[in-house]
Amino acid sequence: MDCWQQIKQQLRQRLNAHDFSAQNSAISQYQLEFTPDSASDDVLAWLKGQCCYPQFFWQARESATQCVALGQVNYFTELAAAQAFLTAYPMQQLQLVGGLTFEGEAHFYLPRLWLEQRAQTWRITLTLSADDQQSAVEAFLQGLSPPLPLKQVQTTLRLETQNYSENEWQALVGEALAQIEQGHFTKVVLAQKKTYRSDTAVNPYDLVAQARVQHADCYYFLWAQTPEQVFLGASPERLYQRDRQRLITEALAGTAVSSDDPQQTEQQQQWLLQDRKNIHENRLVVEDICAKLANFSQHLDIESLTSRKLSYVQHLVRKIAAKLYPDADDSTCLSAIHPSAAVGGLPDRAALNFIATRQNFRREWYAGTLGVMSLANSEFCVAIRSTLLNQDKIMIFTGAGIVAGSVPLLEWQEIERKAAGILLLFPA
Ligand SMILES: C=C(O[C@H]1C=CC=C(C(=O)O)[C@@H]1O)C(=O)O
Ligand SMILES: [Mg+2]
């Protein structure tokens, strides 16, 4: 019997031993630790083999742990309800996965199965609730499949539509600049959506595997509530990481080119660190995040400006740390900080209103936030540098912050460069 059969069998044994009639604890969790047969096994490959939804893959930046959530025990479409649920089970340290779309819709799951891979050790957690039917959980376990190997992506993409031509984009940037000039807001982040068709079916799990190789130092995520719509990406941006009352976040905004020419990259870095428009663009994000955090933090620390190099672009970044008041939970933090001025604007209400009325598409998960939350700790990324796969359609999203001093042509070049970075995932 292979290791996957054994795991299924062990989970089934736990299920059979579980007393569904005992209502003393509404949520029960069973954990198994194991080492897969093959050292090259990877939770992403395991997820590729599964046909149950929702699915979530997550690897936080600076973390070696890769996580997968499969299936659902509970589903929340209100952030407050998700938070209240966690608060109702203080002893169990339950973890919810999900996030908020750019427009603020909440989608959180308590997953049926949670897999964590740290080096060669995998930990599986099966969650059962008092409302579960034993037969439904049995069917879920029966449906678990072995991993499928991850493959190199190879495809030719054909651009079908883009929401803005270069001229249309520049006109929209001009409109935003006029509003900034008139004092309606100081910053707005505009976005582009490009829709491609591929000559062969593109596998989303292979794309995430490609992203892990191509884009170092990022958050890697895959989020599929149904098989038809798979959202994935490699984002350099943290919304926040919280460990009890300690929260760290960052203002990531302001962009220059980065390439495999070290001299050009170095010269671009020097330019970026001194460029007034980019420094202003970044400073507005610091102001936005700090003003929001100040409402529920005992103190804030703001580090000095540095730059972060990625494979195709580099950004200005300032790290921010906060000590939260004890009653500030993830519901407080998420609803206050998201969307930050790195993807929305400042002041946020006026900028978000401009986006809602002038931007010709709804962003949904692009520039939303995804992550994992529990009572003790949580981490969320800003879901930029992302792609939505919808059958054979591939949509890629990019945005750029518009501030006083923005040059429409340069903002076009910035989103084109960001798009080229995402397109690296689709080698012909
Ligand atoms: C909104 C995006 O980037 C944000 C993050 C870093 C730099 C940005 C900029 O320089 O405009 C954006 O604020 C995106 O890549 O889609
Ligand atoms: Mg920019």
From TrEMBL:
InterPro entries per the UniProt record, alphabetical: ADC_synthase, Chorismate_C, IsoChor_synthase, MenF
Names of the cofactor(s): Mg(2+)
Positions that bind Mg(2+): 281, 414
Keywords: Isomerase, Magnesium, Menaquinone biosynthesis, Metal-binding
All copies of domain Chorismate-utilising enzyme C-terminal, residue ranges: 166-418
Pathway: Quinol/quinone metabolism; menaquinone biosynthesis; Quinol/quinone metabolism; 1,4-dihydroxy-2-naphthoate biosynthesis; 1,4-dihydroxy-2-naphthoate from chorismate: step 1/7
Active-site residue numbers: 187, 237
One BP annotation, GO: menaquinone biosynthetic process
Any one GO molecular-function label of the UniProt entry: magnesium ion binding
The enzyme's E.C. designation: 5.4.4.2
Reaction(s) catalysed (UniProt annotation): chorismate = isochorismate
Matches recorded under NCBIfam families: isochor_syn (TIGR00543)
Function in brief: Catalyzes the conversion of chorismate to isochorismate.
Sequence similarity: Belongs to the isochorismate synthase family.
Name recorded for this polypeptide: Isochorismate synthase MenF
Organism this protein belongs to: Testudinibacter aquarius
Lineage: Bacteria, Pseudomonadati, Pseudomonadota, Gammaproteobacteria, Pasteurellales
